[in-house]
Each structure stands twice: as structure tokens, then as C-alpha cells.
Amino acid sequence: MSFLLFVGLYSKPFWFIMYENIQLPKYPPVFFVKTTERFRHFLLRLYRRFTHPNVALMEMIQNLWLSGAIGVASELGIADILKKGPQPVSELANLTGTKEEPLYRIMRVLASNGIFKETRHKIFTLTPLGVALQEDQMKHFIDLHLGKIHFQMFGEMMHTAKTGNKSIELFIKGNLFDHISQSPGLNEQFNKAMTNTAMMQASAILQVYPFPHYKSIVDIGGGHGFFLTTILSRYKHLKGIVFDLPHVVTEASSFFEKYNISGRTEAIGGSFFDNIPSGYDLYMLKNILHNWDDESCVKILKNIKKALLPESKLLIIEAHLKDDNNPSFAKMTDLLMMVGLDGRERSKEEYHLLLQKAGFNIKKTYHTVSPLAIIEAVPTPGC
Question: Which in 9, 60, 202, 245 has the greatest CB count within 10 A?
Fold first, then answer.
């Protein structure tokens, strides 16, 4: 099979896998994704080598403007409207309560970037990229990350560069998570965004990690429990707990009922800075430690260690920094951690040091088709 044919097979826009009634993206094998990623980086370097630096940098700057347009389309729910069929911009404006002329100017930019398609008479249709803006895909994640507060944080990055402090402190008081918890609307948006993220990441993780080897799982900081639900839906012998702050896990029980796993699950409210449910086979931290500084991470890890059985294992699922000049999801999200939280993205070596301080050893690392890697850790003997 030729390389181009292989690319074609894996570029179909609607590849999904079903676990019971849960629809997840279906990804190609890890080796294929890593190979095409290297090829994509080569093409990017080639493009920039033969493009004047002024032009290349101008295009990067324009990504800010494009992000603003994506945020408007997502918040207005344009992709869900177009799910029902093509619509003229006049009808889109009518349905969303916007002005036709500025909406058209936004939509044609998005169409020129492949997110929608414009046909004659200013009629717009959905594309595979546009599907990602729908309610059941990445809409809530996009709304959260392209909302006003994110533009404020990154607009004041100079404050962080000069002071070493988070730029978000210029707009809110206290910790970002406390700010989210005090706003019912923002709290709902955040947790739906995390469910969107779990949907995107779950099948990549299920593809490589041997969950069938266990009988019980605790998802620490697991939000509404979507990631845990996908695991339990696939493996019927497993039981699980989602553990998160009380105001977060209130929605988890209805979520478990929706996916018919309530008999094997439980939602427990609490803080991982205090006590963690004990006596389970596998403990998971997905996209948690990057939110916190080293001292806080060690405290979380030590609390988990207290809860482990002798044969229990810990999974740390995070993006890893690499010492190279390639485009990097981890290096980008590290900026978000820098301006908005006290955390940071870390290399595998840095996670090794954190785990060592908390009394853990790394047993194995699993790489996925996503930017995430899975560190499997066990308590250090004698600690």
C-alpha cells in the first residue's frame, strides 16, 4: 500500500469508535501518527525556509484574528445550525441574533480556512473541520479557551515576563479554580470543556494501556466522569470511582446513569490535598499535575501513595516536554499554565524527580497517538 493511499485511508473525516452508546474518535496506529507528524514538521520547515521571514511571521500573527473568529462561530453554535443543512448567511444571522454584514465577514474568513464552505449567494455548509465546533464534539472546550479571560491573560503576558507572576491575577482575585467554582455558569462550561477533552483523548489512551488487568479504578480529578465511563463501558468487569471537588462530582451520578454503568461506579467529593479513597487497584491522574507547582504535586502524590494497596499502580497522563525545536503541544500549553495557573508542563525526567520525591518509581511509559504519554508508577520499595 502506498504512503499516499495510507494517508487517504486515515484522513476520512468521520472515523469513530463506539463503546456501548459512547462515540469516540478513532485514531490510526501510533507509528503512523508519529511518522506523519515528522513529515508534517519537515514540510513546515521547508515552507518557512522558502518563505520570507516577514511573511511567515505575519501569518503567525494572523492566527490570533482567526482564533477570534473561531470563538464567535463556536459561541453562536453555527456548526450545530449547519448540521441540519446549508444556510444563507442572512438566515444564520437571524437564528443567532447577529448582524448579517459582520457575520458574513467572519464566516468567509472561516470558510477560507476550511472550517466552513461558502457556495454561491453567500450560502454556507459544514466541513469536517466545522464538525469539531458542534455541541457533542469540542464546542465547550473551544468556548472556554477562546473566551474573554483567555484573551486577557495572553494579552498581558508581558506582566508575567517582567514579574514572574500569573497575568490572570490582573483580572481575578485568588486561584483560577476558586474563581471557576464561584461562578455556576463558568463552572458548568469548564466541566463540559473537560468532558470534551476526555472524549478527544480517551480512545488514544484505551488504544495502548492494558486496563483489563485491573478490577477497580479511581480517576482522581475526573470531573463528570467521562473518561472513567469510557473505560468501564469497554471493560465490563471493572468498577470505578470518580473523585473530584464536591461541586464538580454532583453531575457525575446522572452521567453514569446515562451510560448505564451506575451499578459499577461511585462519585466521591473531596480534595486530593486531603484524603483520597483507599484500597483500589489503579489510580489515575489525567491532566492534573500540570496545573500545580512542584510542591503541590508532591503533596498530591504522597496522598495517593497513602491510599494504595501493595499491588496498586498509579498512572500519570500528561503531555511531555521534549528538548528539540519541533512544534509542541506541551510547549504551547506550558504558556497557558504560566499565565493562568501555578503549574507547568514537564519532561519525563522532571516527572521522574517529582515521583522520586513522593516515594514512587517509574515502571513503564506508554506513548499514544495524542500528545499525551502515560507514566505507570509504583511505590518505591521500603519508602
Answer: 202
87 φ, ψ (degrees, to nearest 5): -140, 140
In the chain, helix, strand, coil percent, each to 5? 55, 15, 30
Burial classification of residue 351, based on how many CB atoms lie within 10 Å of its CB (0-12 exposed, 13-18 middle, 19 or more buried):
buried
Most distant CA pair in the chain, distance: 73
Length of the chain equals 383
Rounded to two decimals, the pTM is 0.87
In a 3-state reduction of DSSP, which class is residue 72?
helix
pLDDT at 15: 53
pLDDT of residue 241: 95
Amino acid letter, residue 160: T
Which of 125, 101, 130, 90 lies closest to 113, judged by CA? Answer: 130
pLDDT of 325 over the 90 cut: no
pLDDT digits (tens, 9 = 90+) for 199-255: 888 889 999 999 999 999 999 999 989 999 999 988 999 999 999 999 888 888 888
Active site residue 224: no
> Cα dist. 17→24, 194, 200, 270, 324 in Å?
5, 20, 12, 33, 34
Give backbone dihedrals phi and psi of 263, rounded to 5 degrees, phi first: -75, -15
Task: Provide the 10 A C-beta neighbour count for residue 224.
Answer: 24
Instruction: Quote the CA–CA distance of 190 and 196 in Å, as a whole number.
Output: 10
How does pLDDT run across 78-103, given as a tens digit for each residue?
A: 999 999 999 999 999 999 999 999 99
- Nearest-angstrom CA–CA distance, 68 and 74: 10
